[in-house]
Design a protein that fits this description.
Layout (H helix, E strand, L loop, with lengths): L2 H24 L6 H24 L3 H15 L2 H10 L5 H29 L5
């Protein structure tokens, strides 16, 4: 086991979990917007950072700390799954399609944004 990798994933994970908690505290509503928002933003960030790290050739410790650690703990599949069980049936399609569909679109948008930023910075994508 690589201790440095584990440490940076742990630091990223703690940061992501703290950010996830703060978003949840700021957006408490009947509809689980906080879960939907963190999952969509997490998808955007994962697409953005993964693309940047792959093009720039970032150190794998940093890449793992940000992608596995921060993005992994910021997003929350378990809460998404639990929310599905407590929502009223008329809200389920909006929540599921919104979370998954917009999440996939956000990931792709993050990749496009990263490529645009990298081109402006002189990197070929």
């Amino acid at each position: 086991m690589d201790g440095k990798n584990l440490l940076l994933i742990g630091i990223g994970g703690a940061s992501g979990a703290a950010c996830r908690y703060l978003v949840g505290q700021a957006l408490t509503t009947q509809f689980p917007y906080e879960t939907m928002i963190v999952n969509i933003v997490g998808c955007l960030l994962l697409g953005l950072f993964s693309t940047i790290f792959n093009v720039v050739g970032t150190n794998h410790y940093i890449k793992n700390g940000v992608t596995i650690g921060f993005c992994g703990s910021f997003t929350t599949m378990s809460t998404f799954a639990a929310d599905v069980y407590i929502l009223e049936y008329n809200m389920l399609p909006l929540y599921i399609v919104g979370s998954v569909g917009i999440g996939l679109a956000a990931s792709y948008l993050g990749e496009l944004l990263a490529k645009m930023l990298l081109r402006k910075g002189g990197f070929s994508t």
